Amino acid sequence: MRWSLSLGRIFGIRLELHVTFLLFVGWIAINQGLLAGNVPRAVEAVALLLLVFACVVLHELGHALTARRFGIVTQDIVLLPIGGVARLERMPDQPRQEILVAIAGPAVNVVIAVLLYGLLKATARPTRLEELVQGGMLETLLLVNVIMVLFNLIPAFPMDGGRVLRALLALRLPYVQATRVASAVGQSVALVLGTAGLLYFHNWMLAFIALFVFLAAGEERALVGSRTTLDGLPVRAAMLTDFRRLDVRDPLRRAVEYLMTGSQQDFPVMNGDTLCGVLTRGGLISAVGRHGLDVPVGEAVSCEDVYADAGEPLENVITRMRGRERSSVPVLDHGQLVGLVTLENVGDLLLVREALRKFASSA
Asked: What distance in Å separates the CA atoms of residue 353 and residue 122, rounded to the nearest whole number?
């Protein structure tokens, strides 16, 4: 994810920290009196925040490691001010698997809460609710984990409870219809939470989370609809075959000419008859800014093996492109460059197929 800092790997999964999280930590410290000289209180608040997000990481690891049991790779776990996101390559194909993946995260928080409760009991610390609210760091951490369990199980897709709802619906309904229903429920809950956050609680964070849920539910509905539309299509059905290519010895000036005189923005780069990589529009502009127009293309692009096979499922390639944040990938057939798949062209294909579906239903 852009604007993220790598924290390393845990169980082989990349852990990233979004820069806005650092801003959030700074805001918490200032809000708790750092600038006013109350350093101990600010340090304690930041320490509690970091412990909470350690629980968030464990929550997301619950999702990721359960998904791994079903052969699903987790691209990374990203920490944001509103929580964590485990980005799975794909969701489970079977509803029962999706249920297990969804509840694995809250189950981790249940375990943490039980351990904290046992620790408080063992040390004769207060455990009644009214005492926990006024308690110290451990008491607060116990409450936070209980709240995480309850909040995540709200049936607001795409939160964990919403995914459980979608999976339960998918046991009886087609997957697309189940997603539409779960998405509608999620957006309805988000509207209620957002309204309550603004008008009743005056809590901007709750309103922001509600907005995130509302937008994410709509995006998930659109994504599942797109996957269904593309189901069964090979890459060659959506690839560009009329495109320009560059050679590693061509000057950047030629790439700029192609960019300015056509609609193509990404260019496959060849080393003779062998594909080297792709020079993107952003990469081209950056290279021109560093080297000028007369440097060979080969010095501006790194050779890589990211490509698609003409016969593989288009859905798989789109998932790969989104996971690696690519706007295009070259297409090979028996080792030869035969096309270029772009997200823009896939979008055009979706529009055409949707128009044909409407025409067929009205005929």
From this structure: 63
What is the rounded distance in angstroms from the CA atom of residue 295 to the CA atom of residue 37?
Answer: 55
Sign of the C-alpha dihedral computed for residues 213, 216, 218 and 220 taken in this order? negative
**322-348 per-position pLDDT tens digit:** 777 788 899 999 889 999 988 888 888
Catalytic positions, written as ranges: 60
Which residues on neighbouring strands pair with residue 74, listed in sequence order? 88
Angle, nearest 10°, between helix axes 160-170 and 175-195? 150
Q: At what angle do helices 343-362 and 314-323 cross, to 10 degrees?
A: 140
Whole-angstrom CA distances from 173 to 63, 166, 205, 311, 323 are: 24, 9, 35, 31, 28
Is residue 80 within 8 Å of residue 19, measured between CB atoms? no
pTM, two decimal places: 0.71
Helices within 153-231 (DSSP H only): 160-170, 175-195, 204-230
User: In the numeric block, which tokens belong to residue 130?
Assistant: 């009214």
Q: What is the pLDDT of residues 234-254, one digit of tens each?
A: 888 888 889 999 999 999 999
Q: What is the 3-state secondary structure (H, E, C) of 20-46?
A: HHHHHHHHHHHHCCCCCCCHHHHHHHH
Residue at 266: amino acid letter: D
Cβ pair 189, 156 in contact under 8 A: yes
Structure tokens at 155: 């049936």
User: Could you give the CA distance from residue 142 to residue 132 in angstroms, rounded to a whole number?
Assistant: 8
